[in-house]
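go over my protein:
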Amino acid sequence: MGGVMDAARRFDVSEFLDRSAIGSHRFLIFSLCTLVMVVDGYDVFVVGFVVPALAHSFGVSPHAIVSVFVLQTIALGLGAYAVAPFADWIGRRKLVLICTTLFGILTLLSTRSTSVGELSIYRFVASLFFGGVVPNLVAISSEYGAQRQRAALVMILFIGYTIGAGGGGYLAALVVSHYGWQGAFWMGGLTPLVFVVILYFWLPESIKFLVLRDRNAEVADQLRRIDPKVDLAATAGFTIREEKSGSMPVIALFRQGRAVATVALWLSDAMNLFVLTFIAAWAPTFLHAFSGAGAEQAAGVAALFSLGGIISPLILGIFMNRYSASRALAVNYVLGALAVILMGLVAHSVALSALGIFLAGLFIIGGQGGINALAAMLYPTEMRATGIGWALGAGRVGSVFGPALGGFVLENHWSAGSIFVVAAIPLVVAAVATICVRFSVYVEPAASAVPRPTALGSH
């Protein structure tokens, strides 16, 4: 298969990626990124599944473990803000390898902790590095994918994250029963280090990053791996449909008419993650308090939140690709708000609560994958990791306050109906913010070949 050549015999890589079949090489890239997301999901949520063991080991009440959650969440946000953008200079692959290695080592060292304070410091520093990984996995996957497939591919990544968060939690509980809380962290530290070796040999650099840096030999090698029959004879170089920007990456997120879209994207991400962490942290407690479910039953029903999140991204991805991406996502958030309100109305019944929490996971976790896919679609290559990273960072800010809300409403003995009506409000805000992304249009420089924002609001 060939690409499109211009008069100077320059090969159009974007045209090639859009027309080529996925093939084994791109399938391998997408699979590796998804598997790392599974590990990420496990490592981010593992603390929540070992709280009783940690509290017993350190001789404190479970509430004292809250500082670990808070510092970890803050560090993930700081990593997305401060670490991820370095990939726009040194490359996505290199940053993923460095950050994953450091995270694995620090997670192993955290098994030496003898107090909540020590564990909090280890988790803070480790999460700072891991916060830079997710935006760059999203960038690599989206940049190797065809334009029409990009949203669905990014959504698949977050299915992996959800599998790691939900299924990995049960695995962590099993390990803790045999090896203590340290066993769960040994698994959480060794697994990333094993993957670093695999990624070193098999994960390539983003092809669009290579094109923009004029690393032509590496670009040609990747094109031949995607399609061995591609004709690169007499090719003088490679082109991409996105412009090279001279702006500082973070500043560029607010230039050329992107300011409204960027702020709206951040707000949507923060509001959705606020509700997601609120439900993920407190669902078992709410089930026990309002329906009388036992601890094991409550944990099983709460797992339906993750199950809904595994199913939904593929469905939402189809709608985002077929229709307006922002419109589909806004409708999803409205449905999520209704599902959260339903949880409050049926909180007295275990069976009906199971339905409510499944629907909440379907729309809320699916919405998180959707907002990251929207970020990948909004920004050009040289600032994509920065854009995704700052959006995720804004989301992490919101996620810090989700668990705090749960503690506040339980301490003040709110009714189930009041709790979940209040929890639904941020999702309505997210829906409105997402519509603002849709109606925010910026104009590319005259040299640009493709007006990117049209894709967000018109198909």
User: Anything to note?
Assistant: The longest helix spans residues 150-202. Strands lie at 4-5, 10-12, 237-239. Residues 243-248, 441-459 have pLDDT under 50 and may be disordered.
